[in-house]
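Priority: medium. Attachment 1 of 2:
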């Protein structure tokens, strides 16, 4: 094997690490930017073994204290009572019977 192939095997894709840690890839990407890895831009980026170790350590630590959750729960907008119709519903007249040519 050449050195480039060995290096490629050492690297781990972001999506693979996310699957291993049972997290979303977006969470891993957020942690990468938090830890200062600007070269990691998407789920197909390769992570060096040092990056993988640092990310696993960061995940074990849990969320930073004093920070809000990454995705706050959204509340459904309040829905009032249904509006009353100002006009009545019109019914269509029955269809006219048209004789078909034979």
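Attachment 2 of 2:
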């Amino acid at each position: 094997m050449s050195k480039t192939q060995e290096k490629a095997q050492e690297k781990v894709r972001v999506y693979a690490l996310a699957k291993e840690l049972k997290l979303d890839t977006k969470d891993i990407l957020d942690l990468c930017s938090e830890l200062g890895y600007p070269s990691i831009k998407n789920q197909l980026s390769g992570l060096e073994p040092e990056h993988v170790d640092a990310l696993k350590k960061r995940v074990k630590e849990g969320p930073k204290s004093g920070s809000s959750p990454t995705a706050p729960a959204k509340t459904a907008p309040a829905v009032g009572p249904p509006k009353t119709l100002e006009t009545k519903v019109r019914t269509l007249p029955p269809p006219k019977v048209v004789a078909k040519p034979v």
